[in-house]
Design a protein that fits this description.
With 105 residues, this protein is mainly alpha-helical. Helices cover 73% and strands 6% of the residues. A hairpin with a 2-residue loop joins strand 1 and strand 2. The mean pLDDT is 86.
Length: 105
Amino acid sequence: MSHENGSYRTRQGTAVRALVLDWTSDHRVDAFLVSSIVVSFALLVTTHVALAAGLVGRKPRSRGLLALVLPPLAPYFGLREKMWVRSVVWMVSLAVYVVARTFAR
């Protein structure tokens, strides 16, 4: 490598150009899938805890504890208690997570 006009060059061109050319569409798809998996799972866990906490705050409180232990009950009880947004976000984030995990295999 040599220093020329403030930039470092390699024999094939700039180091940045080599890095960009190496970044193929497969890498972009992999990065998108990993990002989708991480974000959707984080959103799913956060929404699950928010649903369970909301259910604990309403009577009967046992539904909140039961929903915390048995995850599929959280959106079910949430919809029954008219927690529309939390329940829909829970279901959508689960669907995105499952689809992303399926494509990542």
